[in-house]
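Model it.
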Amino acid sequence: MPISLRACNTSIQTIMEFSEFFLTLFILQAIFLHPSIHAAPKNSNLFREYIGAEFNNVRFTDVPINPNVEFHYILSFGIDYTTSASPSPTNGKFNIFWDSDNLGPSQVSSIKSGHSNVKVALSLGGDSVGNGYAYFNPSSVDSWVSNAVSSLTDIIQEYNLDGIDIDYEHFSADPDTFAECIGQLIKTLKGNGVISFASIAPFDDDQVQSHYLALWKSYGQLIDYVNFQFYAYDQGTTVSQFIKYFGEQSSNYAGGKVLASFISDGSGGLSPDDGFFTACNRLKSQQQLYGIFVWSADDSKGEGFRYEKQSQALLAISH
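Modeled.
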């Protein structure tokens, strides 16, 4: 081979090697450094339950706890409204709207000290307050975040809580404002060491999804769990429909840990009596059962928590 051709081939080979090197480096940077990329989730033994919204004297100790699961109670709710007879928005100054007589700081400390696998979170917002809807209604991003960080830090530290859940369902602000307020709140509370995890609780409604997907797009890397309200789908949902809905929402919240869910009173979605655990076993066989959550302990109390026991037993099996 002539020297000029040999030199040319060598140069081309060198260029290709450098190109492959930089391409590999770029991919590694994208995987390890880009904040919006999530590692693929796998099966988990996480069980979560909302508690305290209905003031029917349910206690932490009423709910059976399987020692072989990770167990989260979620207090419902903290709301940035006044506690007056006609509640009004407070621009991020949160107050307690759960049954704190039965679910107070001493009860939190007691249940956590007695069960090393238990953590307690606080859900923000919810559907209603007083006789009306609870709206996300900030005056501005900066003022809302400042007030929310201050008031929630006080509550979280007083109650020795571990995380927050975002469950606003009605909005007087656009999706981008919601995303900035909630994203900055989670970022600040995590950065200050006040919380160790955060979740969101969307459901299949256009307005709700537009707000939560905007939050996910900008701050998804800070959100540990997606408590998707699958029970907000029609009552009588089938196993195949549930699996389809789960796939759709897993795509919407790509890379997130989307949890399966049911409502205790069977009023919506796929109920335990109609195949919920069949669907969960199918997800588990596909390495997609990232946990189960229930609305709510208040409603389950009258049923003896039988589905909580069944959920935890399923999750506790080696995953």
